Amino acid sequence: MVNIIKQEIEVEEALKKKLEFICSFCNTKCEIKKGSIRTIERKNLSYVEPHRIIIKDITFLAFNYETNIYIENLSNKILIKDVSLLKKDDFER
User: Fold this and answer.
1) Residues 6-10: what's their mean pLDDT?
2) Long-range contacts of 57-62 (CB under 8 A, 24+ apart)
3) Which of 22, 56, 70, 87 is least surrounded by Cβ atoms within 10 Å, i.e. has the fewest?
4) Is residue 92 part of a domain?
5) Residue 81 phi/psi, 5° resolution?
6) Tell me: the pLDDT tens digits for 40-72?
7) What pTM was estimated for this model as a whole?
8) Which domain does 44 fall in, by range?
9) Is 91 inside a domain boundary?
10) Where is 46: in which H helix or E strand?
């Protein structure tokens, strides 16, 4: 039987402050869900699940100590500071 161990990762304080500042600047709120590390017991295999930041029903993915943030998936990346430059239309699906 495969046993997966999940360890929650705390959100870096600087990342949290940046996101809260951007959201207050844009007059919106964000919901931050902590990421985790998933490890298969007795195997040399791990997966780092990114933090999920939800702003206006759009999910952003972020890792601690990184300057990029990802929109919806890991193939669409922008700088964290550029989140506030996204137009309202960019949040529409």
Assistant:
1) 95
2) 57/91, 57/93, 58/91, 58/93, 62/15, 62/19
3) 87
4) no
5) -65, -20
6) 988 899 999 999 999 888 899 999 999 899 998
7) 0.81
8) 4-85
9) no
10) strand 46-49
